[in-house]
Each structure stands twice: as C-alpha cells, then as structure tokens.
Design a protein that fits this description.
Layout (H helix, E strand, L loop, with lengths): L2 E12 L2 E12 L3 E5 L6 H9 L6 E6 L2 E2 L10 E4 L11 H11 L4 H14 L15 H13 L5 E5 L7 H18 L2 E6 L2 H7 L2 E6 L2 E6 L1 H6 L4 H6 L4 E3 L1 H8 L4 E4 L5 E16 L3 E8 L2 E8 L10 E5 L6 E3 L3
Helix pairs in contact: 2-3, 2-4, 3-4
Amino acid sequence: MTSAIRFSGVSRHYGDVRAVDNVDLDIAEGEFFAMLGPSGSGKTTSLRLIAGFERPTAGEIRIFGQVAQGIPPYRRNVNTVFQDYALFPHLNVRDNVAYGLMVAGQPKAQRHGAADGALEMVALTGYGDRKPSELSGGQRQRVALARALVNEPKALLLDEPLGALDLKLREQMQEELKSLQRSLGITFIFVTHDQGEALSMADRVAVFNEGRIVQIGAPETIYFRPETPFVADFVGSSNVLPPEFVAQLTGRKAHGALRPEAVHLSEQGHSATVRSVSFLGAATRIGIRIGDVPMTMLLPKSDTFPKVGDTVTVNWAAEDLHVMDRA
C-alpha cells in the first residue's frame, strides 16, 4: 500500500486543549477516506494539519512520502473544499474556478480552458459566465469542487462540504462525489459528523473522539463490530448493553453492542415493556426496557405496532450481539 498521508505521533495542542493527541494514521493513495466524529473530536484539525493551515505541536506528517514540515499550503499537493464554498461573489464561475491558476501566473486563455474542463468534470458545462448568486447550493458546491480540482491535486480534502445542503441534494451529491473519486482515482479525505454519510461513501472510516482515533476500519466493521461503547453509540446509535446484562447472555462480562434493527418481536425470548413508539416512515422505532436495561428496536413497516405500556417478547440472533472486549 502506497501512503498518500501518514501521521506519526501527531499532536496539536492549544494550551491545555489537546485538539489532536498523538495520532497515528496511514491513508492509502487513491483511497476515499472519511474522518468521522462529533464536534471538537479532532477531525477538522487533522484535515487542517494536512492542508498546512495548522502546524503540529508534535509528531511528523508525510504527504506522498515527503515530510510536510516547513512546506506552505500552496506547495502541498492537496486542495481543500470548504463547507461554505468560499466563492468570490464578484467573479463569474469560470474566474472562480481559474483563480488559483491566475495566482500561479497562467495565461488567461490557458486557465480559462482548464476551468471549462473542470466545470465539465462536475457537470456544469456552460455555466462559466454566471455569478455564484445565480446558482443553487448544489451548483455552488460543484463550482467549489471544480476550483479544487483544476490544479490537479493528488489529494482532495473535503471539510463537511455537504453540510449546508438539504437532505435530498446531500444524498445526490454523496453519489456524485463517490463517482467522481472513482473516475479521477485520486485520494479523497472527507470530514463529516454524519455517520450515514461516512458509511455510505468511504472505503475506510476513522472515528475520532477527544482528539484521538478510537477505531479505524471498513464501514461494515465500524458498524457491526464497534470496539468501544462510544463507537457503538455514535455510529448508528446501537444499543450499548451493560457488562452485567451481557454476562447473563454470553458468560462474558463486557459491554455489548446490539443494533436496533437486529431486535425483533418473537414468541420466545425476553419480556420487555414498551416505553415509546416513534413512526419514522420506512420503519418504526420502539423504545423498550428489559428489566433495568433500556433498548431500542426498529420494526419494518407493518399494520400493527405495540403501544406504550404493552408487554412484549423480543429476541435477536446470538451472532448479532457483539461483545466489546476492548471496552
């Protein structure tokens, strides 16, 4: 595996605040890599360290094998797409895309030709003469992408780029970004706090919490085999079961993770009291309690559901209960 980005013991501290704390990370060339975590977990700071907008307090960063220390952002073979797009309102779309090439001193005809090529890449052929104010949110996002890609970076850094879009457009852009990354074959590093976004788009996901990476792996592994209660709860809102309850079920005293969709009504199993019922459209979320243990189950579309206060019997397949020995 050829490394695009490598962190070796990287930290970034602000006084007593450890924004990034002794992180080791290896991102492969050509990989779609997601950094996932809540606000303040260190993911955006890590991205800014790669871009060169921040300097590490300790440790070493290598970008395509080259030590990044001392290399300014404009000389790093990476470009960043920001959530707010950062487009110049007084420039038309073509000149926004070509801005970096203008700063680099390219002739007007050459940079405009490259900008039109980049706009074609993001399905905005013919939009070069428009102003950003004449575009939709999704179109402005594409312009920001084109501007980042026109310099032909080896890695594209995306800092929550879809956060300002509505749900339907965000889902459409997720598909387009993944398709674009496959066609270009370059490294995409994507920062998000949206679990579904990370799981659906990334080849691998790093889950951040309190400045550290708490788990890294394929989306399926992160989802079905979380290593800590934090990962289980944050990624997909799993039922995190206490060690005493897990010991009764498995004989192993450790926290357990059980996805809500794995829990179902059954003729045999565990007696539970219904605490809440929430209709979600394609499914209904049922809050239950087994003894002192609160849990959630997701039931598919049906004509009848239990009501609050009902006593029901629930069960799950033994293999769906993941015991988190590391926790």
